[in-house]
Amino acid sequence: MNTQVTDVADVTDVTDVIVVGAGGAGLTLATELALAGIPAVVLDRLPGRNLQSRAGAIQPRTAEMLALRGLLDDALGRSIDYQLVGGHFAGLPVPLDYAAWDTRYPHPVLLPQDQLEAVLEDRLTKLGGEVLREHRLTGLHQDVDGVTITMATPDGDRSLRGRHLVACDGAHSSVRKIIGADFPGQAATIRMATADLLLTGDLDDSAGGHISSRIRTSPEGHFAMITPLADGLHKLIFSGPRTMTAERDAPVTTEEVREVLHATHGGALDVAEIRYSSRFSNASRQLAHYRHGHVLFAGDSAHIHSPAGGQGLNLGVQDAFNLGWKLAAVLRGEAGEALLDTYQTERHPVAARVLALTRAQGVVMGPQRDGGLAELRDVLTDLLRLPDANRYMAGVMAGLDLCLPSPDAEARPLLGLRMPDLDLVVDGGERVRFSDLTRTGRAVLLSLSDAPLPAAAPWSDRVVHVRARVASGAIDAEAVLVRPDGYVCWAGGAGLIETLTRWFGPADLVGEGLVGESGQGA
Questions:
Q1: Which residues, at least 6 apart from 368, have a Cβ–Cβ distance to it below 8 Å?
Q2: For a tag on the chain, would you pick the N or C end, based on fewer CB atoms within 10 A?
Q3: At what angle do helices 312-331 and 338-365 cross, to 10 degrees?
């Protein structure tokens, strides 16, 4: 561990949380902390937001989570006016039917990563936060009370002290390297590149909006996938013999892109201009532990994988939604440090499954046709045409099937599942969606009958208690307790006090901003 900072008494800048990295995970975490009233400083080494599209879509579960905080409308306003026809597994020509999972958002949303980051940063600014640009981490030291860092800034070297630090600084995380965190996995076997570019020629879009219509390969080992962006730009993800041997930091050249386009599109397309480009690989690694004392990891700093399936950005954003409210509860004194251990318990298995899925898709999507791979594609395609198999894979790829560990899940099937965004009529006759009740970032105790729940009153500073009836949709419970990240942690019956205590601290805490039994909160 780097111990360049040794004298805490010399540190003049202090905050509760230091967030390193202003990508999707870092900005999501910072907005969640700001919503909870927790001071955080966000650092990023770049002078401004990375304008390359990078991740190109958000999955239905991420859309649902953005809706929980009232961010989805802004995101949709920045999305590309092109509707993808369902999801996909390995680009096979069978759309995955997300509607089978009872979601309001049954299609991936074409939202380039830079636009999602713009949405999040705008919300962070409105909540009083900011991103400190051109601030590069140079040293980190932990002690029993927190973390002290040094950083290079445009105004010289600075130090900063925080009770916790969350590393969201990407695949080549400086924090991960400084503390020497174990990052096991598989080294790269395929090197690829992506470019936002202008094309000349005729792009055949006759097959519609499914991703399989956008993937082309060549017998020589070229791979190309083209999707539309705004303002006439297209995003090209590609590989080929030249790309496979390129150094990671080598610039993407027009000749390299042209070679791939000619090999996969028969000369119908050419390059007019490359706006942004970068290289990546199918390296697949995951931290053994997401928490190292007062340092936690989220997003690509915690796990890397190929972009097959379009799950990476979504995985990081969902990491941050899981961690944000827990970290805020600990820092407000509502919960002990043990609550942070549930972040590892809940999110590490999710990323492990995504890594396995992306490795499998990389094999299936590749240009190879020998060794039985062509036949394997045919078998998988036939399987995905079966409704049950399609529904299963749709849930996996979209993150809609996630069920968090719960000791009572067998007796109460709702436990651990995402809360459906029901249409409700609350006291007074107002019609709302469930997601309208979650804008404050607090947990929601939703009563769907007249049965009283007086035991929950002592938690009214942390849990919004709403009485309502279901206007459309259905849920098999008379009352549910939903965590701030949208997952059901209690669904009627015994155990309400124990559940409230486990997730939201003891009843005898005194907080501010109390809400009434039947109100929606301040």
A1: none
A2: C
A3: 180
Output phi, psi for 250, to 5 deg: -70, 140
Nearest to 314 by CA among 93, 87, 50: 87
**Which residues in the chain land under pLDDT 70?**
1-12, 204-209, 409-411, 510-522
Q: 103 CB contacts (<8 Å, ≥6 apart)? A: 60, 61, 63, 64, 398, 400, 421
Burial classification of residue 51, based on how many CB atoms lie within 10 Å of its CB (0-12 exposed, 13-18 middle, 19 or more buried): middle
Amino acid present at 242: R
Q: Which two tokens stand for residue 55?
A: 């991740």
Q: Same domain, yes or no, for 270 and 289?
A: no
φ/ψ of residue 104, rounded to 5: -75, -10
Beta strands 223-228 and 234-239: pairing type? antiparallel
Burial of 519 by CB count in 10 Å (0-12 exposed, 13-18 middle, 19+ buried)? middle
Of 68, 158, 55, 183, nearest to 113 by C-alpha is: 55
Residue 516 — φ and ψ, nearest 5°?
A: -75, 165
From 140, 161, 158, select the one nearest 17 (Cα to Cα).
161
Backbone phi, then psi, for 219, in 5-degree steps?
Answer: -60, -20
Cα gap 1→509, rounded to integer Å:
37
Number of domains making up the chain: 3
pLDDT of residue 474: 86
Q: Which residue has the tokens 């190109």?
A: 56
Q: What is the signed CA dihedral for 160, 169, 416, 103, rounded to 10 degrees?
A: 130
Q: Are residues 272 and 306 in the same domain?
A: no
Question: Looking at 337, 361, 385, which one is the last position of a domain?
Answer: 361
Q: How far is CA 296 from CA 73, 95, 291, in A?
A: 30, 36, 4
Give the global pTM: 0.93
| Ramachandran bin of 482, using left for φ above 0, alpha for ψ from -120 to 50, beta for the remaining angles | beta
Residues in the chain: 522
Can you tell me the distance from the alpha carbon of 37 to that of 279, in angstroms, rounded to the nearest whole number?
A: 38
Question: Is 321 inside a domain boundary?
Answer: yes
Which pLDDT belongs to residue 519?
35
pLDDT score, position 208:
58
Nearest of 297, 201, 197, 295 to residue 238 by alpha carbon: 197
**Residue 444 structural domain:** 403-522
- Ranges of H-type helices in 457-513: 496-504
My answer on whether 292 and 161 are in the same domain is: yes
| Start-to-end C-alpha separation, the chain | 44
pLDDT at 162: 97
Name the DSSP letter for residue 487.
B
